[in-house]
Design a protein that fits this description.
By secondary structure, this protein is α+β, with helices and mostly antiparallel strands. It contains four helices and twelve strands, in the order H-E-E-E-E-E-E-E-H-H-E-E-E-E-E-H. The protein folds into two domains: 93 residues, no CATH class; 81 residues, OB fold (Dihydrolipoamide Acetyltransferase, E2P) (Beta Barrel). Strands 3-2-1-6-7 form a five-stranded antiparallel beta sheet. A hairpin with a 4-residue loop joins strand 8 and strand 9. The chain is elongated, with a radius of gyration of 28 Å.
Length: 238
């Protein structure tokens, strides 16, 4: 009995992996040839659930009115496995889903080939994440070339005049993007104003606030190109 149980679990696991791979391939194919469009849920029913690698899922049969890119609306039905959520069902029909706005991707040549993409709340999150990614790309474009100054920049000191929090977090690095407006002073040269796009670790934010003095490295051929000297700044008090 125990041996058969282990065998059944192994076979079931292999079947689930194959089913997931097949589904992922089908989704990729529909996205490759499909269009994404808004839709309104007419009816949603569920009569089945299953375990998955991410937890429990319920099978939802959606009937939707899809707004095609040409301005016409057509009705379609499709099946979607989604993470189990809190819901009330009467005779299998999900209460409160009718009228819900969602987004779907479908094959214009075969509209029955349709997949659920996200609802309006999920779309707002995805849009915000995309906007942050675009802003990070622009910030990186400005900040990353300055990295070369860490190897060949001239050492100097600077007073932070203004520290602007760009509201652009880098969670994986526990850091946030900032623009530092600084007065740079090197040896006997008169001070001058420069701007530094800087990625600051969250625990060190106080060290880079207005009024603080920091160490920097400047480009000898273009003094406006300035980067923080992370090595020497590490010894500064927080």
């Amino acid at each position: 009995m125990f041996v058969f149980t282990i065998f059944d679990e192994i076979v079931g696991g292999l079947f689930a992996k194959r089913r997931r791979r097949n589904r992922e391939q089908q989704v990729a194919e529909i996205r490759a040839r499909g269009v994404t469009a808004p839709a309104v849920v007419v009816r949603a029913t569920t009569h089945a659930s299953r375990k998955s690698s991410d937890g429990h899922e319920i099978r939802v049969n959606y009937t939707v009115d899809v707004g095609a890119p040409n301005g016409q609306v057509f009705r379609a039905e499709f099946l979607h496995w989604e993470p189990r959520r809190s819901y009330t069902a009467v005779a299998g029909e999900l209460q409160g889903d009718a009228g819900r706005h969602i987004w779907v991707t479908y094959d214009p040549a075969q509209p029955s080939d349709m997949i659920f993409e996200y609802d309006e709340a999920q779309r707002a999150v995805l849009t915000a994440e995309a906007e942050l990614d675009a802003r990070r790309s622009e910030f990186n474009r400005l900040a990353e070339p300055l990295g070369e100054l860490r190897a060949n920049g001239l050492p100097a000191e600077a007073a932070i005049v203004e520290a602007v929090d760009l509201q652009l977090p880098y969670p994986r690095r526990n850091s946030t993007a900032m623009t530092l407006h600084v007065d740079v002073k090197r040896s006997a040269d008169p001070p001058y104003r420069a701007t530094i796009p800087a990625l600051i670790a969250v625990p060190a934010l106080a060290k880079y606030s207005a009024g603080r003095r920091v160490f920097v490295l400047i480009d000898p051929s273009d003094p406006q190109r300035v980067v923080l000297d992370a090595t020497r700044n590490a010894s500064l008090p927080g």
